[in-house]
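Continuing the series of single-chain predictions for the mutant panel. This is the parent chain; the variants come on the following pages.
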Amino acid sequence: MWADGEPVRIAETKVRALLADLLAHEGKLVTTDRLIEDLWGDRLPANPKNTLQTRVWQLRKAIGADRVISHPSGYQLRFDADEVDMLQFQALLSQARAESPAVKARLLAEALQLWRGPAFEDADFARPVIDRLDELRLTALEDQAELGEDVSLDELVTRYPLRERLRGLNMRALYRAGRQAEALESYHQLRQLLADELGVDPSPELSSVYQSILVPQTNLPSPVSPLIGRAQAVADARQALSEGRLVTLTGPGGVGKTRLALEVATGQSFPDGTWLADLTSATYVLDVVAQVLNVRGRLVDALRAKRLLLVLDNCEHLIAQAAELAQELLSAAPGLRILATSQEPLTVDGEQVLPVEPLSQSDAVELFMKRARLSIVDAEVQAICRRLDGIPLALELAATRVRAMGVRELAARLDDRFTVLSGERRGVPQRQQTLRAMIDWSWGLLTRDEQVVLRRLAVTADGCTLDAAIDLTGASLDTLARLVDRSLVTMPRYRLLESVAAYSQERLTEAGELEWMRERHRSYYTALGEEAAKYLRGHRQQEWLVNLDAEAANFRRARNPRLAEALSWYWFLRGRFGEAQRAFENGDSPTSQAWYAGFTLLIRDGAEPEIPDGDIDPRARWFLTYAQHGFTGGMEFDEPRDDWDRAIALYTKATTAFARGDFPSAQDLAARSHVLLRELGDGWGQIKANQVLASLAETHGNYAESARLQVEARRVASELGLAVEASYALSGLGRIALLQMDYRKADELHTQAARLAAEQSHQRGVQFAEVGLGLSARRQGKLDEAEAHFRAWLDWCRRWGGDAGTALLLAELGFIAELRGDVQSALALHAEDLTVARATEDPRAIALALEGLAGAHALAGRTTKAAELLAEADQLRRSVDAPLPPGERGDVDRIRQALQ
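Parent structure:
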């Protein structure tokens, strides 16, 4: 009982029993004698009436004096119905009886939530009321279970073993959970109990449940093979069916909607069965459903009281009829559930649409391998499954060809897939006999406008945006939406599966539109590339990089000289040097040849390109010199066209100044470049300016500042997806860890950098990182490991890496020879190093070569010569205010100690 919104709590047992007694009579007068007998029975107190009056006084004190009314013959409790859980419970149950299934389920749940424990606990005098309430609660739980709610029935069956309705519901629940044997055993247990205790047989209703489980009412075909890769889809569909009454599985032809629906339906149990209505060859949906259900009168009337699952398979060609019938039947028959398959939704109130996706690559491979009876997964198998888009029907058709063709030949012939995948498959509908027949079925359901748009979309590669779809095909939004609904176009991009695209391209050729559409495609994506180029050096850099990433396949298909020049900077930023090289390979203009040479130099693998001359676009010429010289400088712009050119010119001058040891100029130029590039919003440019500033900080021993700048560069590179620059930032951080003698961290960073650069085929980045690993190995005394790193790149640096890289490797190899005591090798390597270093005009590179020669001469016993060389090197370093940092003093300190 509740009072003023709070539950009534009474500690004293007899007062609580008095309240229970008054409540059990639901507000009616209870005589004094009745109350005394109920409360004390044979164990009366000395003065029963006075004791009862005391208990009444205590109750009034707990719940309010006006609630317990005295009469000459007894007492009466006054309350409102909503203050007593028992009365609310009964009212909700009464209301639920007249409501629809959904409302009834809600009211039952509300009523049962009012139970917080046994009714009238410890009040045996209220046994008739307790029994009545327990019966109502048990009936409510049975009603819930019958409505499909999640009710735990096992414990209730144990407590009420002879209750047949409860037993029947539990048997159905066990069957639905796949526990058929337990459901049947439960029936046999009850039959034995009834015979032993009552001498009767189970009721006809329960026997009917038993028969439906023993021999389920269904026309579902038995599967001939296990379902692969659909465990989650089956679970999702069954969950959707438990929550709603209409579930539609949608997807393209051949994706396995029917097979999935059969698997889902097989796991369901309904008193009136599970029935499949295949609409493939139907003209009227109503006739097929009536025939399947053996209904001769009005279908709606026949199903009104039925509880069954109806599977409407292949609705797409009769979608309007299927939708109308589904809505009519669901409105009239609350116990009906419908599972539909269609290439488009029925668009009916309450419909839950579950798209059936193609199989994942791994599941597609498993299906193909099992159907083709193969044991080894090779590259050709992977390619077949990928090119067939994970469509089960296509994979099944392909598997039948393996015996005659072999996997390799099959993979090679998939460009002609409609001829290859045309073998006869017995026992399946005509539309599933061949790959072409499957798509013919879907094509035939389209309107003329839909066919025009679908065939024109075939000119795109890996899909396109909404704007592109409208511009290229002339489609309306409604037409595109219908193609998506029909599962012929996938989202979020408007994309065709490869088989649908191949079919649609055939239709495009038949319509005489192929070359015309290819030209429209080239024009559209060339214009898009040229528009994008305007934004790749400013605040919208990240946005347009992402936009262009999505269109990579379309750009490859639309490739032409104008588009290549428009995309050149995009390819550079993304590290797609090989793709760019191929795009410019046959360029006939000096500008195209400059881009080709530049990307070839960045790849640094193969023959050295011919450097073009003539009228070259200034940015292409700058790019070529950047690719030639990299961090050590490049051509400046003679006449900058905008602030970006001016900022990059400052950056280029900064790299040149740094390479020659003019650190004050490099600092000023790089800082000015960074400010301007930040104002422009060019993330790549800011990274490059940061690299110069980080190297300057490192040179002056300010490792914290250098690390901060490298971390910032890495962050921007990661945000923009600039893998090449991220690799350099990692190597830069590795160099700082090296100078701080944290060799474990240095090795981790350089290894990450090398891997990242290798993924982009950027040899210079790989070389820079692996030289860092060699530097770390030598400083840890791992001379053989260090030499292997340096030797692996020496010839490459002599050819591609420039004098600075070659000089460093020769110096390091010379130090290794000295540490091994090999005087002649050390002298020769450092002498060559000095020659190469002087060509760089970098005082620090020359100083390093002199220090190496000093070590070699000291090893040979020429201490005076060694001391002179060390002094000369020290002077050179002081001339540019770049003394050796502590982390790099190991060699010089060792040589000085040897001289002493």
